[in-house]
Amino acid sequence: MKRLLGFALAVTLCICIHIEAKASYYPDVPLEHDYAEAINLLSERGVVGGYHDGTFRPDEAVTRGQAAVFLANALELNLYHLEINPFVDLPDDHPFAPHATALYTNGIMVGHHSRTTLRPAEQLTNAQLASLLVRSFRLDEEENALENVRNATHLDNIRTLSDHSFEISIPSNQVTRAELAGAIVYFMDDERE
């Protein structure tokens, strides 16, 4: 009887440990959330983080500044010894400044209309996301790819994503934090087959 009880206890502990290992990093990202796996993977890798209250807020619109942090971390860009911060609306001591500058230095984030403003608190649109993804993951495979990527319109980049089986339906819609995490995981080299 003791052996049977001991075996049952061991099995119960194994099941509990297995369930805890699969638990979400954030209380507001249940395991059945469409992007839970992507959010948890990127959290585990230190690419994304939550808020001070421990939440991730997956359905909240992601800002351009937050997108800069997510992408710079995902691409493991050097945040030190960079060019001078080109964005007049992003002070050097702002937490997003090193990430945005790293993206700028690598030709990924080119700034808003005047190219000297980042507008870090503005919400990221699907069209802007398309351009960031194409530039981040070098999805334009033509001969003059880097020049093409820099001069491409958001619509061109949406078409490029479509060529990679990633659809953006309404370019003006705002991107959520969860959707950005899902898009990053989709295009990460070691995740894509």
Keywords for this structure?
0% strand, disordered N terminus, 193 residues, globular, mainly alpha
Question: How would you briefly describe this protein structure?
Answer:
With 193 residues, this protein is mostly helical.
SSE diagram, text form:
Blueprint: H1 2-21, H2 36-44, H3 64-74, H4 97-105, H5 126-136, H6 145-151, H7 154-163, H8 177-187
Describe this structure in words.
With 193 residues, the protein is mainly α. Helices cover 46% and strands 0% of the residues. The protein is built from eight helices and no strands. α2 packs across α8 and α3 crosses α4. The chain is globular, with a radius of gyration of 20 Å. The N terminus is likely disordered.
Q: What average pLDDT do the residues reach?
A: 81
Percent helix range = 40-55%
Largest sheet: none
Number of strands: 0
Distance between the termini: 51 Å
Order of helices and strands: HHHHHHHH
| Low confidence ranges | 1-21
Structural class: mainly alpha
Radius of gyration: 20 Å
Strand content: under 5%
- Secondary structure tally, helices: 8
Rough shape? Answer: globular
